């Protein structure tokens, strides 16, 4: 990777060119299925032959390892403390065929990283991205400084929303701040827990109309995911959905989104 080649965000921060595409997954609020979606999307991309790294970037309440039943010896806390390099902390998740950099579950100690520490972490991640086709960042819920920085750093931002009015409001706030940070950025909307495909489409249309009217920017709609009882069963069993229920409605919907992103 050419470390000297950089691009700059509207805020003036340098952004290293990466060989692997970086996709950040965000939501304005918790409880919308963001982490589950990030895991399933990583699995779907890996099944399409991509080399994928899933990075648990929820610095306050990481839980990818919990959803997958993992107990990694090294995690993001080890990297930040200097006890391990980022590369050393990466674990291969065999059932899904993708790599994981786990966060530190059950602690908020990483939630308030100093800006210079976060920038060093992103530089190390940029170097690691050269070995992957796609790097997925599962960002924390909310709109704090670290979340905004990582969202702006990524090549593409996927914002997860549901049909709930509060989720739509928070998703709009996420898109508003992202537009302020990267006016020409690639933001896309994913509607999760949709009661029907038509209801999901209406939810997406409501949010995109608001963005067009008030932000002067219309995010693309990456897709909708139907509400599916198989999802909760897979999470309870700490098993990837595409492994346990590969043909269920939610699996089909995520695979469709993965196909679009892979193109």
Overview of the molecule:
The protein starts with 5 loop residues before the first strand and ends with a helix. It is α/β, with parallel strands linked by helices. Strands 5-6-4-7-3-8-9-10 form an eight-stranded mixed β-sheet, sandwiched between helices. Helix 6 crosses helix 7. It has one domain (22-262): Rossmann fold (3-Layer(aba) Sandwich). Strand 5 and strand 6 (98-101) form a beta hairpin. The protein has helices at 34-47, 64-68, 76-81, 115-129, 145-153, 165-181, 197-215, 229-236, 241-244, 249-262; strands spanning 6-8, 14-16, 21-26, 52-57, 91-93, 98-101, 134-139, 156-161, 186-194, 220-226.
Short description:
With 263 residues, the chain is α/β, with parallel strands linked by helices. It has helices at residues 34-47, 64-68, 76-81, 115-129, 145-153, 165-181, 197-215, 229-236, 241-244, 249-262, and strands spanning 6-8, 14-16, 21-26, 52-57, 91-93, 98-101, 134-139, 156-161, 186-194, 220-226.
